[in-house]
Every structure is written in C-alpha cells, then in structure tokens.
Amino acid sequence: RRSGVSKGMLVEIEGCKANPSIALLCKIAAAMGVSVADVVNVASEPMVHLIDRDAIPVLWRGEKGGSAKLMAGTSGPDMLELWQWIMHPGEQFESAGHPADTCELLFVNQGTLTLTVDGRRFIIREGCSAVARTDMPHAYVNDTNEVLEFTMTVNEKSR
Q: What is the pTM for the complete model shown?
C-alpha cells in the first residue's frame, strides 16, 4: 500500500512475469526503506563493493536502442546513485518526479541533452553539466540527429 503499486503488479514482478519500470522500482524501494541499488543488488557494502560490468543492470531500454544503466548506488533509504544513459536520436525518458528535495547532477559525455523540468527546457551540450531539482516532473530527451551519452548522479533523501 505504501508504495502506491497495485498488488497485482507486485505479484507479476515477484513471479518474473513483468519487468518494473524505473518509476515503479523507485516507489517499491522507497516503501521498503531501501534504495533502488539495494533492490537490483548494485549497492555498496561496508568497505568496497566492486561491480563487474556483466552485473550492471540495464533498467531502461529505448525504442531505438538506447539504455540506462544503474552503475552503482548506496544502501539504505538515503539514495546516492550513479547512472549511465545512452539515448539515440528521438528517444526520451519521462519521470513524474522523485520525493521532495531530490537532486540530480548531470554531465553530457557526448551529444546534446534536452532536460525538461516542470515544463521548462534546458539544453546541456557535450562537456557541460547541470544540477537539477527533480522532485517534480522531468524528462531527458535526445532531439538531435546524434547519439547522446550522459552520466547522472541522483541524490534522493529519505522522507
């Protein structure tokens, strides 16, 4: 109940009959008081937790071949996550928003990212970075003709 995810969807996920979206994973993790990194097993351990490239989960796939990988994250309700995004021309990802005071750091490795936050558009070019409050609707869009690659850190505090 606390997650806002239906019992039917939880049963489908538990039975490996459905793959949860990033938004659903965030809701489920928050209700459990853990991070998404805990749920997909890329969370840090006491000293150092090395994550092999084959163990890094792809949590989003774009219609044209793009992907979002959760590279690493901390354990517990205060989430700190490192993401790698690749978006092909025309791909986009939309989020309804994270809990209050969530902040994202973005760095564009290649291409141009159009970041929309609460209806306002911001252009982040290759080699540039941004800090964004993402506790409101936001989207990442590649509206160019070139591949976009960006690195993102999410800092989501527990409620």
A: 0.76
